[in-house]
Amino acid sequence: MGYEERRPVTGQASVRIHLSGVRPGFIGGALLIVFGTLLFLDNLGILPVSVFDAFWPLFFIGLGIYGFVRTCSPVMRIWSAASFIAGLLLVLDLFHIVRVTMATLWPLALIATGAVMLLARMGWAGLADRINVASNNVSRPILTRLSEVAVFSGVKRRIESQSFEGGELSSVFGGIEIDLRRAGISTDGKVAVVEANAVFGAVELRIPETWRLSMQGVAVFGSYEDKTIPPRPEPGFETPTLVIKGGTAFGAVIVRN
Question: Based on the domain organization, do 84 and 145 belong to the same domain?
Fold first, then answer.
């Protein structure tokens, strides 16, 4: 008979959940199932409130959860939290626990904007020297990584580094324009990732004609637009790839070449 050695398990099993890897179709399907179930129960007269009256609270709550799941941007997560709180307050109003009106909710936008500006000024996430509350137009030829936030403002950057690595762009009631037409990507695999988020704002990037673009962003009442012409590289030439991730809420992210 053979002898099988069994060793005790000494380590602890760990489970990692990567929320950013959840696909939009999964979340959309789950929301449809929940809404359909509630609508079915409403038609049977089981629920104490109308589903249509609860639509807007559920929308804001779902938008807030979706923002946390789909992006790691601190700016987007602050706005996602504001959306979730607004939805929660509307639910409480629906059950007559608290009285909520639009005059009650709109200051949440001011709080979210102030939180972004305040925490950034305190050095949070390394954004203290890049928070913009006024128009800013600067050329940074040797900058290899972007980290820009525009709050009620406009930001313009021209990057000419041949070792561009990507970065993060967040626009809140503002606009960001990034010119990468003279930049280059020299990372492993020649891939650079930019997380671009816009809340009631816009982000526009201009890239070289030799770069390939992969748009992976999600838009909620907004748009992620690829207006580039795909490159036609010569045989044996490794085409650099720019990956755009993130999300928009009532905003737009546009890439051109």
Answer: no
Amino acid code (one letter) for 219: A
Residue 2 lies in a domain: no
Taking the CA atoms of 75, 76, 80 and 83 in sequence, report the sign of the dihedral they define: positive
User: How many CA atoms, within 13 angstroms, populate the side-chain half-sphere of residue 184?
Assistant: 5
Q: Output the pLDDT for position 35.
A: 72
Interacting residues of 203 by C-beta distance below 8 A, sequence separation 6+: 169, 171, 175, 176, 178, 196, 197, 251, 252, 253, 254
- CB proximity list for 161: less than 8 A, separation 6 or greater: 141, 142, 143, 144, 183, 184
Question: Which own/partner contact pairs does 226-231 have at CB distance under 8 Å and 24+ positions apart?
Answer: 226/255, 227/254, 227/255, 227/256, 228/255, 228/256, 228/257, 229/257
Q: Which amino acid is at 21?
A: G
Mark whether 76 and 31 lie in a shared domain. Answer: yes
> Is pLDDT of 110 > 90?
no
Find, among 156, 157, 159, the residue nearest to 141 by Cα: 159
Assessment of whether the complete model's pTM goes beyond 0.70: no
Q: In 3D, which of 123, 136, 71, 82 has the Cα closest to residue 104? A: 82
